Amino acid sequence: MFYSFARWVLAVLAVIFNGRYTTVNKEKLPAGNYVLVGPHRTWWDPLYFAIATWPKTFTFMAKIELFKNPILRFILNHGHAFPVDREHPGPSVIKTPVKALKNTDMSLIMFPSGSRHSNEMKGGALMIAKMAGVPVVPAVYQGPLTLSGLLKREKITIAYGDPIMIDRKTKLNDEAIAVFGDTLTAAFDDIDKEVDPTFVYVDQHPEKGQK
To answer: Collapsing DSSP states into helix, strand and coil, what is residue 44?
Structure first.
């Protein structure tokens, strides 16, 4: 109930402050659960993923530091988020989303690089999708990367790619993770070019990725 209300509020605010967004290839989304993955370009791209992919409901990861604030903790807990300790991730990082994908009607929004300032693909999405037996769906956000651009109503597009099925026999080793990362990178590039052949993503704070 809270999730649906919050998403409706966010959708209204998105229209008020930025205008109507565009979706591309939404028909490619599977009927069942899946892991929706994308390159993390702004702090609001997960919000647009959740809004644009309505009526699908999602769970998602949020860094544990956000749960220290009681107001944010209430919002995150009731918005189907679960905490992740990036410095010391435990088994729950995998078990919690796998359980949700298997036992509820919620899919998962996830950013394989784990950060807005990293391009290195990690293996979490591959492991979760394999264990849950669901496909991975690549998606991209194209639009303003700064708050000023958002408020100037620069165009926003959310686009989806073809679902990627994970073979149950796939071994979760470094080679498989590297191949999966290359597959996702190529999928993101293809989707970006389909939306705008001239698109080039530029990190607004590259220095943060060097820390």
So the answer is: coil
Residue where the block lists tokens 């649906």? 4
- In angstroms, the CA 120 to CA 178 distance is 10
> Long-range contact list for 101-105, CB < 8 A, 24+ apart?
101/33, 101/35, 101/128, 101/132, 101/134, 102/132, 102/133, 104/59, 105/33, 105/57
Q: What is the chain's mean pLDDT, rounded?
A: 87
pTM equals 0.86
Cα–Cα separations (whole angstroms), residue 17 to 75, 149, 198? 21, 10, 26
Q: What is the pLDDT of residues 108-167, one digit of tens each?
A: 999 887 554 345 557 888 999 999 999 999 999 999 998 888 888 899 999 999 999 998
Instruction: Please provide residue 73's backbone torsions phi and psi, each rounded to the nearest 5 degrees.
Output: -60, -45
- Identify whether the C-beta of residue 86 lies closer than 8 Å to the C-beta of residue 37: no
Q: Round to whole Å and give the CA distance between 182 and 185.
A: 5
| 147, 133 Cβ separation under 8 angstroms | no
pLDDT bucket at 26, cuts 50 / 70 / 90: very high
Mean pLDDT calculated for residue range 9-26? 90
Residues near 57 by Cβ (< 8 Å), separated by ≥ 6? 3, 4, 80, 105, 106, 107
Nearest partner of 113 among 188, 24, 169, 50, judged by Cα: 188
Q: Three-state DSSP class for 142?
A: strand
